[in-house]
């Protein structure tokens, strides 16, 4: 019998693997009762990372209720001060990249992570990743539009400041692009 603790432990291992190997796709096979329009991978990643000290922003009321109940995390009405921003691809705005926590030199970890549930990981536009955790380069295909990576690259140009991206899709794939990773549009 799998409990929620066993489930989140497995997802945590997959998150660590995806974070340490940017561009590597993890398939989240764990099951969860999901009453939202988000993928199981998105909900499980949030359930694994959130606790009662984490603040998050989402415009989706069902997801907000689920995350508050399942994790005890604090729903924030102001995305610019939130630790995590949870949204769907079609709900993206430039402000979610530019007007968020980017850290400060003395505490670069005080930055936001955008958790974006996109249409597809493995289909769409091709991006080339390079940086720590990648031998030379890695090419990935995502349905996420080029303009969002342009905003992300602008925010991440002054390392160690920036934001991290975590993307999931309807097939429960998960990919992480840390602020240390260089992203080129091909």
TrEMBL record:
Record bears the keyword Transferase: yes
SUPFAM superfamilies on file: PhnH-like (SSF159709)
InterPro entries: PhnH-like_sp (IPR038058), Phosphonate_metab_PhnH (IPR008772)
Pfam family, one: PhnH
EC number: 2.7.8.37
Keyword field: Transferase
Enzyme's top EC category: transferase
Molecular function GO labels: alpha-D-ribose 1-methylphosphonate 5-triphosphate synthase activity
Protein name: Alpha-D-ribose 1-methylphosphonate 5-triphosphate synthase subunit PhnH
Naturally occurring in which organism (per UniProt): Jeotgalicoccus aerolatus
């Amino acid at each position: 019998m799998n409990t929620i603790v066993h489930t989140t432990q497995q997802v945590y291992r997959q998150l660590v693997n995806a974070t340490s190997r940017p561009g590597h796709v993890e398939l989240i096979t764990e099951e969860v009762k999901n009453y939202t329009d988000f993928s199981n991978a998105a909900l499980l990643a949030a359930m694994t990372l959130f606790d009662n000290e984490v603040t998050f922003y989402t415009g989706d009321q069902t997801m907000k209720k689920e995350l508050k109940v399942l994790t005890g995390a604090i729903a924030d009405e102001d995305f610019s001060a939130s630790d995590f921003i949870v949204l769907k691809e079609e709900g993206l705005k430039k402000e979610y990249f530019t007007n968020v926590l980017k850290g400060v030199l003395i505490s670069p970890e005080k930055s936001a992570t955008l958790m974006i549930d996109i249409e597809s990981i493995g289909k769409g536009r091709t991006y080339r990743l390079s940086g720590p955790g990648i031998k030379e380069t890695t090419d990935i295909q995502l349905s996420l539009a080029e303009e969002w990576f342009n905003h992300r690259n602008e925010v991440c140009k002054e390392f160690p400041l920036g934001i991290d991206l975590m993307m999931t899709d309807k097939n429960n794939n998960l990919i992480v692009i840390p602020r240390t990773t260089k992203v080129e549009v091909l």
